[in-house]
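Quick one: structure tokens for this chain, please?
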Amino acid sequence: MSKRDLKKYLAELNKEQLEEQLIELYEKFTPVKVYYDFVFNPKEDKLLQESKVKISHEYFPVKKPNAKWRPRAKMRRSVAQKIIKHFIMLGVDSFVIADIMLYNIEIAQTYSSQNHIKYELFYKSILNSFEQAVNFVISNGILNEFKSRIVEIQQQTIQQKWKNKYDFEVILDKID
């Protein structure tokens, strides 16, 4: 069904029928429920904090009480990418999205400063995240608010002697 056909169909319905359909969608489909829950009660700060905790647990997993062993860090970039995609879908403020994008990189760098990472893919994925974050803040006109964090991330690549530190520098050169 095209958007035009949908509009035509919805125009034919009365208010009660529209309400019934929306309630049915709300009850039947989780993404619709999540969307409306967010629209009517955004709580972006709470959502941001929960997301930061989830991302940090990818690098610094929490030992469960009474467990004999501590879980290994999974370092999955996909977890943060799903959160970012979800935030964009919900229409979360661009400052919050940029914050979570940069936080993801910063927590990965904190982890790499304490642990030797031999996987080349880790550095490449963080570079991709960095480029996406820089492009996002530029396209949303919020570069000035996040420039210091972006520069600090690039400086950390030099300080930690990442092999692709010059690639980060090239991306940073685009904003100057």
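The mean pLDDT is 91.
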